[in-house]
Specification:
This protein is mostly helical. Helix content is 39%, strand content 0%. It has a domain of 45 residues: 2-Layer Sandwich (Erythroid Transcription Factor GATA-1, Chain A). It is elongated. The structure holds zinc ion. The site of zinc ion (ZN) has 8 residues, from loops. Zinc ion binds next to loops.
Length: 67
């Protein structure tokens, strides 16, 4: 348990197999595509969330008003 981090084989972020230098941080084109798909899905959700935030007419904070 004294190996430097540089010598430790890094693992694919998707499936855990050893990374391929051509596809780092993944082991293959397939896993790179999987990650890209996840990233795109997450990216699509951002505009929807921003619209949802600005679309609220009455913020919950307003309920605290004693008036
Ligand atoms: Zn993989």
């Amino acid at each position: 348990m004294s190996e430097p981090a540089d010598r430790v084989q890094r693992r694919c972020a998707i499936c855990g197999k050893p990374q391929d230098s051509r596809f780092r941080p993944f082991c293959s084109k397939r896993c790179a595509d999987v990650d890209l798909g996840r990233w795109l899905k997450g990216n699509y959700a951002i505009p929807g969330r921003e619209i949802d935030e600005g679309d609220q007419p009455n913020p919950p904070h307003d309920n605290d008003d004693p008036d």
